[in-house]
Amino acid sequence: MKQKNSERGQALIIIALAAVVLFGFAALTIDGSILFSDKRNAQNAADTAAFAGALAYSRGADVQTAALSRTTSNGYDNGTLSDVTVTITNTPAGDCPANLTGKEIKVDIVSYVNTTFARVIGFNQLINNVTATTRSCGSYYGAPFDGNAIVSLAPTGTGFDAHGTPDFLITGGGIFVNSSSSSAATCGGAAGVNAPSVSAVGGTSMSGCYTGTAPTTGATQVSYSDYASLLPRQPACNGTATLSGGQWRTQSGADGSRVAFSGNMSFAPGLYCVTNSPGPFHGEISGSEVTFYVMSSSFSMKFNGSGNLTAQAPTSGEYKGVLLYLAPQVSNGVLLNTQEIDMRGNGSGNVVGTIIAPSATVTMFGNSGTGAMNSQVIGYRVDSGGNSDITIAYAADDNYKAAQPITLSLLK
């Protein structure tokens, strides 16, 4: 009798193989998700640790201690399941503003993840490697608004408008327009603009009337809170100016001496607080080493005839480089446009110093003579008037400089 081969036991082999496959899928699903979750957590820990180290450097604290403390608080303690390395290097020359020295802080985390189901297929432990690098650059004194010679802070509408007949001839800095509107910066008619650069949040309409590097759009818009700390301190204005020897003089020991603009006025060095809003003005305002702080929320000064302001800012002290400072008008954190001023020289003398008028429409008038403006002009809106060309020869060292904040950046 012929005996058949037995097939008993084959099912066990198939079941065993299937179990291995099932455990493999389980390992992929469960252990894989655990590995992915750990990598995300480790990356977050590395990022925050690198920032903690950069902040510690900016504050003069120990970078290693700050970074390792942050990784430990996030579960990566340089123990049996993680290796943490903090590397500190000097920032390459030129990578920090104003050629400052800085540090780059790199945090590497190697995380070991114990498996559950992957052990069946020979993987008792899986490994994650993550890294993060930050850069810390210190604070410095520099020209606000990236050293642009003309700055318009209006968030909407036309912020810079060159029309009529005068040309803007600008050196030493470009034009920044904060408006997000499609016509943020415009020029036309017989007017022209010659400047190193034009950058705007919104659009520009300057074809055929602008000479310089092609205008750039899409700049980051700034709000009042972004630049409020860059503005000079507003003085107490607790003194009274007096006329002596043909010149107006400050009160000794005062934090700003009050005076009203009226007619021709010559000022001795000092800080003056302008109390009135003269409107149409025929007089000449002159002085050297002077700062005029305007107190009126609705200030208006429109030069007529031979009226002009030809003066030079202080070359030292708290208000170094500040010639004219109109008190900013703000409501609920929003900058308002409530003031207006003409900027006009006398034709031969130079105007030196920054014009800080964040709530004012500033109308620029040119000189028919040889005089020029060595000024940074910061206004709500900036436009042109008159017939003579407007020459702005901006030199940052003669103008206002503000303490720029430290910069912390995530490189990778």
Descriptive overview:
With 412 residues, the chain is an alpha/beta fold. Helices cover 16% and strands 38% of the residues. The protein has a 16-stranded parallel sheet that branches. A hairpin with a 2-residue loop joins strand 26 and strand 27. Helix 1 (10-58) packs antiparallel against helix 2. It folds into 2 domains: 10-138, no CATH class; 142-404, no CATH class. It is built from 3 helices and 35 strands.
Features:
4-stranded antiparallel sheet, alpha/beta, 38% strand, 412 residues, 3 helices, 2 domains, 16-stranded parallel sheet, 35 strands, 16% helix
Compact summary:
By secondary structure, the protein is of the alpha/beta class. It has helices at 10-58, 63-73, 224-227, and strands at residues 82-90, 102-114, 125-137, 140-142, 150-152, 160-162, 167-171, 175-177, 185-187, 192-194, 198-200, 204-205, 210-211, 239-240, 242-244, 247-249, 257-259, 265-267, 270-274, 279-281, 284-288, 290-294, 300-303, 308-312, 322-326, 330-331, 334-335, 339-343, 351-352, 354-365, 373-374, 377-385, 390-393, 402-404, 407-410.
Strands, total number: 35
How many structurally independent domains? Answer: 2
Gyration radius, in Å: 33 Å
**Could you tell me the strand content as a percent range?**
35-45%
How would a crystallographer describe the biggest sheet? Answer: 16 strands, parallel
Secondary structure class reads alpha/beta
Average pLDDT reading? 89
Given as residue ranges, the uncertain stretches (5+ residues, pLDDT < 50) are none
How many helices in DSSP terms? Answer: 3
Q: Give the termini distance in whole angstroms.
A: 79 Å
Shape: elongated
Helix content: 10-25%
Classify the oligomer: single chain
